[in-house]
Amino acid sequence: MKSALGKGLEALLPEKGDDVVKLDILKIVPNMHQPRKVFRDEALKELADSIKEKGVLQPIIVSRVGDGTFRLIAGERRWRASQLAGLKKIPVLIKDVSSQDAVEIALIENIQREDLNPIETADAFDRLIKEFHLTQETLSARVGKDRATVSNYLRILKLPEEIKAHVNNGAITLGHAKAILSLEGRQKQIDAAKTILNLGMSVRAAEALCRKMAHPLAKPKKKEKMPEVVDLEHKLVRALGTKVMIHHKGKKGTIEIEYYSLDELDRLVEVFTK
């Protein structure tokens, strides 16, 4: 059998002799290696309504299991929506590929269609590298994306789980995730994600926030006052019965005297005008 490994979508294209057939929908089993993990109910219902009206316009791709059932390679959304629509049979294209080849085809097919959310895409990249011993350069050529893009997706797998959950549900985009990854330390990343979510920040605002968090401005050290000035402050506090601050510079300065009510102000004025 001719291997489909590395051919991606090309392995799914109809060849001479391939026929689209109607198959009992109950004989099809989902692919346990399906990279897509999130199937949104609303989107599935919309697709099911379309299928009720127009039918399944594009056949799903399956391979023979050997026990009379067929394993999905590509088209799980159409398969799920067809069940919702009440279809008994569904058009399929049967491809005889090995189970290992089917895994790679399913991963690459979904990536090239850009059907996956960033976490699903990152997981798919990670699996292709580990299971098929691909380098990032080889993988980028297989999926038609530059190496920097592949690298950025792989990096988001290093984020804390709570942040990845927000990426998974679309609350945090890949752009936001890249900004958060510029921060070192789990807690800093979580704090940044919370701020981004609470304020509904754009990617540009998130980048600015993370730059600020990564390089906070050092607070200037307070210049210590001369002992003589501190001693004078204490004398004024005792004499006036309120907080007093002396700001001395060179041969001049200012004195701050705090009051907390109009009655106290009247009292201080009386002290000074005696």
CATH level 1 class label of the largest domain:
Alpha Beta
Strand runs, count: 7
- Which CATH architecture of the largest domain is right? Alpha-Beta Complex
Low-confidence stretches: 1-9
Beta-strand percent range: 5-15%
CATH topology title of the largest domain:
Conserved hypothetical protein from pyrococcus furiosus pfu- 392566-001, ParB domain
Summarize the structure.
The protein is an alpha/beta fold. The chain has helices at residues 41-54, 76-84, 99-113, 118-131, 136-143, 147-155, 161-168, 174-181, 186-199, 203-214, 227-240, 262-273; strands at residues 20-24, 28-29, 60-64, 70-74, 89-94, 244-249, 252-257. The chain has three domains: 8-115, Conserved hypothetical protein from pyrococcus furiosus pfu- 392566-001, ParB domain; 174-218, no CATH class; 227-273, no CATH class.
Provide keyphrases for this structure.
274 residues; alpha/beta; Conserved hypothetical protein from pyrococcus furiosus pfu- 392566-001, ParB domain; elongated
Structure description:
By secondary structure, the protein is α/β, with parallel strands linked by helices. Strands 1-5-3-4-2 form a five-stranded mixed beta sheet. It has a two-stranded antiparallel sheet with strand order 6-7. It starts with 19 loop residues before the first strand and ends with a helix. It has helices spanning 41-54, 76-84, 99-113, 118-131, 136-143, 147-155, 161-168, 174-181, 186-199, 203-214, 227-240, 262-273; strands spanning 20-24, 28-29, 60-64, 70-74, 89-94, 244-249, 252-257. The chain has three domains: 8-115, Alpha-Beta Complex (Conserved hypothetical protein from pyrococcus furiosus pfu- 392566-001, ParB domain); 174-218, no CATH class; 227-273, no CATH class.
